[in-house]
Amino acid sequence: MSVLVTGVAGFLGLHVAEALLARGEAVLGIDDLNAAYDPALKEARLRRLLGRERFGFVRGDVGDPAFLDGWATQHGGDVTGVVHLAAGRSRKHPSHPREEVHQRIAGHLVLLALCRHRLPQLRHLVHAESGLPLPEDSDGTAGARRRKALRDAEIILGRAYARLYRIPQTCIRLARVYGPWSRPDALCQALADAIAAGRPLLLPEGGQVVRLAFVEDVAAAIVSALDDPPDPRSGTPYRLLDLAATEPVEMARLVSLLEDELGQVVEKRWGPAPPGAAAAALDDGAAAPDRRPATRIEEGIARFVVWHRKHYGRTLEEGRAAPL
User: Fold this and answer.
1) Are both 11 and 127 inside the same structural domain?
2) pTM of the predicted model, to two decimals?
3) 319 Cβ partners below 8 Å, 6+ apart?
4) Do 134 and 159 share a structural domain?
5) Most buried pick, 80, 194, 233, 275, via CB within 10 A?
6) Which residues contact 245 (CB under 8 A, 6 or more apart)?
7) How far is the CA of 259 from the CAs of 3, 52, 182, 202, 206, in angstroms?
8) What is the mean pLDDT of the chain?
9) Strands, E, within the chain: which ranges?
């Protein structure tokens, strides 16, 4: 028996795969290693998994029905769980809506069809839906409306397959995830890069607060959810699990923690928040977390910086102020 992890060379995919392998699961990984951001980082993550006992990898696009059909012919009979993380979000999507629709919706629909037709032992499908807006999003913009429509479409499709074909599913909403092996465009990564290079930081005025979740805590929550599928005999075996309502962290404190760990203090410049920043900031009415973080922010930042120093162990080029 095995677990399929799509997007296995991604930031969260790597940590979910490692958590599953650590407890003795067989993991089958799929990733197309696309250029949404530096493919070399994805390849470095993948090298941590390749050669591990009980891990197998195939490069391919989960939005391609022919590829998945061929993959299922060899591996589908043993899959009991799926963690679908391949539909990540790219910052080039605002000007490429067709690519976003393909990645988010077509890929999700193809995977649902795979679960229905080609995975006879499947007990549970877990997939991640990012509920956090991009910084450039703001209420009423075409990009914000499109992203909301795509999130709604993913849930509608999932509920339909759960009800009609009794496929137990959990949709997980995520906060900003940080930690070792993070994406280059992630908040902590952008801050750390600027601080390590001694570049001034352009920060939003008004004491902005963000919610952060350490990647290993999120991976553990996903694996725990995978172990507890909704009852397939229920009316619609589909649930939403909110992991976005994590502990709040003030931006100024986050910068201070990174400066302390990196041993570098940089100039801060304060300016108006960019469009959409209010939507990405803390909502005072946010729900309580479904799972309290096991890693305190001080520990998480320290562990992130250890990795950052090792992976980016060079002097970063000087540049202009890094806006957030």
Assistant:
1) yes
2) 0.88
3) 197, 199
4) yes
5) 194
6) 175, 211, 286, 287, 288, 289, 290
7) 39, 35, 18, 15, 20
8) 85
9) 2-6, 26-31, 55-59, 79-84, 124-130, 169-174, 176-178, 201-204, 209-214, 238-242, 248-250, 268-271, 322-323
